[in-house]
Design goal:
eight-stranded antiparallel barrel; single chain; 10 strands; about 10% helix; mainly beta; elongated; about 280 residues
Length: about 280
């Protein structure tokens, strides 16, 4: 009886606090009064990381009546480069989705795998080792639906769901040593995945937002999913991570020119000379 009461006592303050945050009125992140265009461009430099399993994988293989092999695989993630540019469109009624974005990116995925084990045939036992490295470079098209939750004025948490299609235009796989037959595999030339992203953003000025975020796939269409979007290189599966900083630029209705003072909350304090004529 005490446990449900305690759980309710802990959950109720958090629920009330969250309700207070949701009920509080914050300024619109994307202006809904027509002072800014609903579309604009963004750039997002960043890095990638191939997250390897936290624990080494151990396998036993029976290769014949008197032949057996034991193997231990150790994956090592590495940093890669990432750069995205694209276009966004904010929605007219941001109840479910605040904005859509469509981007084209360069994505590099790198990593290593070391392996070792023993090989037994009859009464003979020997040791073996293997060492592999991969460096794949992709051209990526991505589309996302984004939802913003304001936590303070002009500060927000962003949740995104999207899809990406990757084309590997360059790749290298170097391997030295012994590999267990039939255990190595690699991603195909074209990869299709669903991904999720979470970020924390600031609206620094009327025309600029900055959103650091982390992204990872959660389901692979191509190749066949191997566990919540993980991809296999050699004999180890890795989780691709993207850490990026998005610079999102809003536009005034008349291109990049400032709107009239009466429509610009940031400029109301300025005095305009009505007799001034542009030369």
């Amino acid at each position: 009886m005490k446990s449900p009461v305690l759980a309710l006592g802990l959950a109720l303050p958090g629920a009330l606090f969250a309700q207070g945050l949701m009920d509080r009125k914050h300024p619109d992140i994307f202006p809904l009064d027509g002072k800014m265009k609903r579309s604009g461009f963004f750039v997002a430099p960043g890095v990638t990381w191939t997250l390897a399993p936290f624990k080494d994988r151990e396998e036993h293989y029976d290769l014949g009546a008197d032949t057996a092999l034991d193997a231990t695989y150790h994956g090592k993630g590495q940093l890669g480069l990432y750069l995205e540019a694209g276009w966004f469109i904010s929605t007219r009624d941001p109840v479910i989705i605040d904005y859509w974005d469509f981007g084209l990116a360069y994505k590099q995925l790198k990593g290593r795998e070391t392996s070792q084990g023993t090989f037994a045939r009859g009464d003979s036992i020997g040791d073996w080792v293997g060492d592999g490295a991969f460096n794949d470079q992709h051209l990526t098209f991505a589309a996302n639906a984004n939802k913003l939750f304001c936590v303070r004025d002009y500060r927000f948490i962003q949740f995104s769901l999207g899809a990406n299609v990757d084309w590997r235009f360059s790749g290298s796989r170097d391997f030295a040593g012994f590999a267990v037959p039939g255990t190595q595999d690699f991603p195909p030339e074209f990869i299709g995945q669903l991904h999720a992203k979470v970020g924390y953003g600031w609206k620094l000025t009327q025309r600029l937002m900055i959103i650091p975020a982390i992204e990872t796939p959660f389901f692979s269409v191509v190749p066949e999913d191997q566990g919540l979007g993980r991809l296999q290189w050699f004999s180890t599966t890795y989780r691709p991570l993207i850490l990026s900083v998005r610079f999102l630029f809003l536009r005034h209705p008349n291109g990049w020119a400032c709107p009239p003072v009466k429509n610009n909350e940031f400029e109301k304090h300025k005095v305009v000379n009505p007799e001034y004529k542009r030369r």
